[in-house]
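Q: What would this complex look like in 3D?
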Amino acid sequence: MNGSSVVEPPDFQAATAAAAAAARASSSEQDEWSASECGFLDPEVQRVMRSGSAAEDITQYPMHGWVDVTKEFHDACAELQPGELAQDMLFGLFEAMSAIEIMDPKMDVGMGFDKQDLPPPSFEAAIAMGAIKLDDLTPSELIGIFDALFSCIVSWLEGNSMDQVLFTCLYLHAPSKIKDKALRVFCTAVRNLIVVIKNIIAGAAVNEEEDFQLYGNSALLGAEKAQPATIFGSLKEVEDELVRKSKQLAAPEDWMAVVHRLRFMRHLFQVIYQVEQMANIESSEETMNEIYKNLNVASELLPLIRRTLDRGTQPEKGSEAPNPMGFSPRIHDRSQPPAFPRSIKIRDRPASYQFLEEMVTRFKYACKVIRHKDYYSALNFFIEYSKKSGQCILSRSVLQSLFSANIRVAHGKQPMKQFLRHSVQIFNSPPVLNTKHPVAADPKVQQHLENFFRYCINMNTFTQFIRICGFNRARQRDKLARLIENFDTIQVDAARLDSLMNQLANEKAMEGNEPLSTALKHSTHFSTWVLYNCFRAMFIFLMSGFELELYAVHEFLYIYWYPYEFLVGFLVSALTRTENILLAQEEYAEHQSKIQSNSGSGGAAKNRKAAKPKKNKKQQRPYRAEIVFYHALLSLCGGMYKAMGALTKDGRVRLPLSKFDNEEIRYNRRFLPFATLTSPPPVSYVEFKNIRDHMMRPSAEELYSYAAKHFDQARNVLESIQNPDQEMLDLLQIARTNFVVMNVLARGHQKEVKRQPEFDFSKHNYFPIIKLK
Amino acid sequence: MSDTDAKEVVKDVQMDSSGPCTESLEKTQPWSYTFCEFEDESQLKVIQNMIDKELSEPYSIYTYRYFVYNWPDLCLFAMDGDRYVGVIVSKLDMTLPGVPQGYIAMLAVDEAYRKQGIGKTLVVMAIEAMALKDAAMVVLETEMTNKPALALYESLGFIRERRLLRYYMNGVDAFRLKLIIQDTGNLPDTDD
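A: Here is my prediction, written as structure tokens for the whole assembly.
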């Protein structure tokens, strides 16, 4: 049977009509089917009906009189091959793949149970059975439950379903029924923590389905109202009680281990709660200090907790429960959506506390975002933070919340538009943005500026760039591709603004208003700012393909070529141009002040004015370090580009030898997001090919030595950097090693063995160490 | 998109990846094997057994039927005599109006018959069949840990277009691979 006839309407209609007829025959007394008998009371069916447009037809279906089509049905069936099915129009691949075959252990959750298995006990059943204690828990029992609950929180944050990790703890189902105060307060805190964490993650909106499951058993969570504001106090109270109690004991260590856990929970909870509250708070600096203090206490408690892990009850060997008492691992198996059974892995206790320790460190790092008061340095911070904290959804969300509870608000109540304006001023200080500037109050100028920044906000490009840094690394690349396209319209607008400012300056000059015109002297301030950010997005997009392992070895050549030939150079020239503008402005200001001081005031003022520019000189090279670093990256890209050229020429790179392969198509696909930009103009495959052909003209040995030279340059640049960070040291090692490898190959080593080398990216995400096998 | 849920597996189909850098189909073509299309129900069990054996990811009977009865000509077998030793299951449909897109859902080769180019031959045959029907591109997903499969597809000119985090039920990441046969320019992605 061919594809089209499977969905041919006659077959389908015959089959459904016959099914209806058969159904009618079996219930002949009834004239009509009730809704429930048609399955319409099934919640799943109702949901589909509500959402589906075809629902109307279905409702009509049982209401009409029936026609006997048994014969037609059998005739239609005769046309089918054995095993063939009539396919509903709406039954596609998704439905086919979602179907569950009953009794297949890979698909049927129920197959995980033994015949002898008792149903998993609920909270009430467990109490009735005496399986869980509600009062007078020993320190060991409390520690066991607390540690298991921290493991569940961590496992939840790692993407597992809330029901299948957290709510397997029966105590969480109804904490108010727990009589033991420490346990009750702790469990209440966990429930509130869940609510607050969910709010933060939902608010930050940098989560994807693969990161985190936002939804869970809301019925269980809703049963007791969340009161996050009271948690800190009640934890403190029970801690104090236990401390008093333990003082009367000969061996207070066990109770103190309980206290440390309660205290850790209190400070962790307070941090998360305050982060959530950031949006509504006037003074963010003060809250930030509070958060930081709480984080410090939390991180001091963690070593104490980790030292006392063995004081708690431990999970039983072979059991799925993270603790012997209080957990019912399969309690929600039957309430899960109909899907294939997914294995749930709850982290063990040491690993969970390790996670929490790292998370607290990440939060502390996130607090430093408050220091970054302009776009340039904030973006740098977000990019670095993502490199270090990209895996943890809560850490990423917390940074977003701290930076801007609302997308239009940065650092407290400063509107985003104001923030961007301030940022451009910090970045390259366009004269018109200086409030003391003679034309700053000019309504025409103000209007143009207002329009530009409003446009930046409406396009959302800049704010979006920062937000994208909050997504997981794989999604970042997808989103950057779209972001880069957005830059084009803003570039156009920025260029227009620049030329307007220049025009204005010329007009003033024509009017004979020389000082004003000079002061207005405008360069390409706004376009440079926009382009610089666009280049950065392009660079991250391109290089992230290495980190995500998207590029085949034979593709490395053109990927490294583009930043070597263009992109890094663009970045350097944008920054150099910016520094030059700043310098020129500085010189002009100096010149002006000289004129003023010579003509007007006395000697004291002169001295003061003369001292000022000297101090500023140092500040006017704010991009020095970044430019130097880009020079190193440029040499590394050049080294890799020529190394790949040499290896290819030497026959050491496996090339696709298929009639389906087309390098031009691959090239175009890899640079697709850049194709829509006006600036930088897209570079066609033909241009690339010409440049590559030219590069590859020398012998392989010569090419190896050219590559070695680039790596040597990179090494020199990196060695010249004072106080290098870890990344620079890693790059230095890569440059050194590759320099040696290229020289070895240039001397004809392994000439007879044409094996593809190994490219080891373990030191750096963007640059490999080339290893000969 | 429904087809993003179909999963793909290849186990050690590719020839030794540390071998010489130039390899061509001719050298490794297993001429002693025969290849045929899906014909009837009796072969369904064969497919199920071969795929089930290799896969962690379960497929319901409907998934198999969806593919083999809609696109029987894109379900191909490799045979050693009358023994089934390899299978590829794929489809071709319009994910965008007027743009036929091929999709390779499953590929498996019997363990005893690997490293002989059987998998590659099956993929090439399927792509050729798709190309005859004007396929603009062919896509598939594969586990990022499945190096032989990645090497196989790369040698045919596929690119790894996207990384899909925790795509499979076992928590492993996937790559979405794409081979563009006709350069349709700036085609939007159909698989987001």
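A: To summarize the key features: The mean pLDDT of chain A is 85. The first strand of chain A starts at residue 409 and ends at 410.
Q: Very helpful, thank you.
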